[in-house]
Amino acid sequence: MKKRNHLLRAVSLIFVLLIMAGCAKNPPPLHTSKDQVIEITLTEVDSSTTAEVFGRIVRAADGVIEVKRYGQHVSPGNPQDSYTTYVATTMYKDPSRLDYSILENIRTLLSCGGYAMIRNNLFEFSPSAVESLMGVRLIDAGARQLEYKVDRELKRDREFAGEMDPYNPQSSICTVM
Q1: Residues 38 and 86: beta-carbon distance below 8 Å
Q2: CA-CA-CA-CA torsion for 63, 67, 70, 73, nearest 10 degrees?
Q3: Which of 1, 19, 115, 129 could form a disulfide with 125 if both were Cys (CB 3.0 to 4.6 A apart)?
Q4: How close are the terminal C-alpha atoms of the chain, in Å?
Q5: Is residue 119 part of a domain?
Q6: 122-172 per-position pLDDT tens digit
Q7: Considering the domain boundaries, does residue 154 fall inside one?
Q8: What is the CB neighbour count within 10 angstroms for residue 9?
Q9: In whole angstroms, how far apart are CA 12 and each of 4, 6, 8, 18, 94?
């Protein structure tokens, strides 16, 4: 009887291990609901570097599973006609959590002068590359979309006030987990 129980336990253990090995090769999808897809647009982009930095910030936002650039048009002489759009798949159904995380990442990156480790993503940008992010603000939010704008007046006001100045970093080591 004892040998039979040991044999049954061994077979059960092997069966569980085989199931676990199959799940490791083909993990279940991390996202399944369409409510988790959020479109993020940054308008009045003044350079492709600003669009690149913003995209990296979105990718490092809390709860983001995947980000794809959906479209981009950068017109250096005409920033009012420029935009970049990303589609993000998130763990959260509420875009306000994503909005807070994006703005917090921008504040962190600016206060560190462009050099920061945010959620295991290393950011190494010059202060001039992140300077235009000083004017980023939310202008529209919906159930499945966030729209930001590079506001030059807000940027100028923050420069005069000395807020979030990438040329005068407030910390040399910046890490956000």
Answers
A1: no
A2: 90
A3: 129
A4: 53
A5: yes
A6: 888 888 888 888 889 999 998 889 999 999 888 888 888 877 777 777 666
A7: yes
A8: 10
A9: 12, 10, 6, 10, 42
Q: Structure pTM?
A: 0.75
The answer to whether the beta carbons of residues 133 and 56 sit under 8 Å apart is: no
Which residue range forms the structural domain that includes residue 85?
A: 34-176
155 lies in a domain?
A: yes
Q: Which two tokens stand for residue 78?
A: 């005409």
Based on the structure, what is the number of domains in the chain? 1
**What's the one-letter identity of residue 16?**
V
CA-nearest of 34, 10, 14, 11 to 22 is: 14
Please indicate whether residue 26 or residue 160 has the higher confidence score (pLDDT). Answer: 160
Distance CA(47)–CA(159), nearest Å, equals 19
Q: What is the DSSP letter of 69?
A: E
The sign of the torsion formed by the CA atoms of 135, 37, 35, 142 equals positive
The position carrying tokens 């910046």 is: 174
Distance between CA atoms of residues 80 and 65, nearest Å = 30
Cα-based angle 78, 84, 89 (whole degrees, multiple of 5)? 170
Q: Say if residues 71 and 14 touch (Cβ distance below 8 Å).
A: no
Length reported for the chain: 177
